[in-house]
Amino acid sequence: MDTTDQTAGGRSFGKGLGLRKSLMTLAASVMLATSAQAATPATAEVNTTGLAVTDDTVTVGILHSITGTMALSEIGSVQAEKLAIDQINASGGVLGRQIEYVQEDGASDWPTFAEKSRKLLRQDNVAAIFGAWTSASRKAILPVIEQYNGMLYYPTFYEGLEQSPNVVYTGQEATQQILAGIDWAVENKGAKTFYLLGSDYIWPRTSNKIARKHIDKLGLKVVGEEYYPLGHTQFNSVINKIKLRKPDVIFASVVGGSNVAFYKQMKAAGVDFTDEKPLLLTISVTEDEIRGIGGENVEGIYASMKYFQSLDNPNNKEFVAAFKEAYGDDMVIGDVTQAAYLGPWLWKAAVEKAGSFDIDKIREEFAGIEFTKAPEGYVRIHENHHLWSKTRIGKAQTDGQYKVVYETEELMEPDPFPEGYQ
Amino acid sequence: MFDGYTSSELMSIFAMQGFAGLSLFSVFVLMAMGLAIIFGQMGVINMAHGEFMILGAYTTYLTSGFFQSYLPGLFGGYFLIAMLLAFLVCAALGALIEWLMIRHLYHRPLDTLLATWGLSLIMQQAYRSIFGAREVGVELPDWMMGAFQVTDLVELPINGLFVMIIALSIAVGVYLLMYRSGYGKKVRAVVQNRPMAEAVGINSAGIDRATFALGCGIAGIAGAAFTMIGSTGPSSGQAYIVDTFLVVVFGGAQSLIGTIVSAFGISQAQSTMEFFLSGSMAKVLTLLVVVGILMLRPEGLMALKVRR
Question: Which residues form the signal peptide (chain B) (predicted)?
Fold first, then answer.
């Protein structure tokens, strides 16, 4: 696999695109030398802390698992980040500098994430890291990135309860995904009883805690709450329990291979989700997961996300077209992939607003930075480093796509430490 | 927890829960049969067992794709051919691996653990490079989806029944092969006393290779069957390996009957507890009971008396 030379060789830039990119860089710098010298600020001014910035390039890091269990989920993020970087370069780069990247492999192993982030910060002096996927890998990077004062752009929807000055969270924290989803089920589907089901680790447990508090506040009832070990493949017992308790809504946060088993067995047990008895609302199945589960097995389930590939707006049409052109027509784009795409663009906006690559100066500027070309429509960075974004409900179709049936009118405020929900 | 339910509702739920336990039992039997042969009869700790299962699953995936493109009319029956192919592919790879690697390690059982674990990593990464890191969806013919409606509330999943039938056939097949055929007699002779078996003219190296290949082939069939109920991805095999070893070790490594008894015990305990407790708790309790029993009976439930 050609990915290995990137990890082993340390500093090889961008696979096949590398040559084209360096030619473009060359061309750009020739042009800059003649005409636009004044537009590009001097390196000494924009980089006072020794980051890998030259007169015409700036180096960033990409740190995801491209081997191991998590590769399944993280490869989409890598693709989106590279696409964003290529597009930024094609439109002139950041502060007149072309972006180059060093890609490292976290190998689905949390200590490796810590080690590789240290390498990116200390040895490659990257100006930003786009990376991590699971909360465990983010927690592994956290002390390193805080110690060396780097900046991580983290794409996954996650459980909240964190706010680091050295991380920008481009996915939703839990309340942004859950509250609007439950409200929607209550208001539009008349849901009264809920069954909470998840894989057994921090994200589903925290999410269900928030969900339960919210359901209690609405005066409605949770009739069951269950967790199964990661990788669990036998859901017959819980399916029987669900049939016995007859909840209006199954609120599901099952992840990974378990997802496939769960939906296939629900279908086999004669549950037809299109009947909406019970209605299934998930916060963990994106278009990416459906590819593994099979569209025919999830037809009729609802998902609460901020992004669906089918979103009907000009930004998204452009994004989907560009993504498919770069990686092939059969690609699907899930919520996290879109959030990963936001990372490089938000970084560019912050750098340009600050007029500097220095981490400390960028940090001052985060609050209020907008990205109007976001595929999800529009996002803005909150002062707590999370994004204001809308929550949307999609209904799964047999072709593996979601049809958007609802979206919040306002942007949802990110609230990583929700009061009354802990 | 049963307040407010009619007795017919309760009866139906218990019936379906019984079925859930039986279907978990057949899954365990399928998983464990191949390993019971390799681990039990040959003493090789095959950590790559799960990856062989996934090879069977990918074979099914490819077969289903082939039928969809070239023989759409016969799609309804592709699954049987896929299982046969899965067996052949896995058995062939198993024989190759035995020749390349395992046969050099028969006298070093702990090294086979490391070597086959390495093999499992290699196989996982190979799947990732060939099929991509994403899980693939294996499409099933329509007749295998859905459920039998027995009464209003009792529905039996067809694929669950199908897995049961496969598990039963394989268990019977393995029994006949091991206890009613010339080959089985030779295998048992080699297991009980290798030098004596060789002395009476049994080609023990050939028996070893065939046995390893057979175990891998059965893993392949299991993998093919599991595309109906689980996921097919590069690391999906990892989900099965712990349960598989648990069943085989608990049953008594050298006894095939023991494997079946232990699969039955563990699956019934687990599915009953899953119904009354939460999923994770049921797993913890099951493991605790197994650990407790193994402390009292280190040889497993059904220890074979072997002269050492």
Answer: none
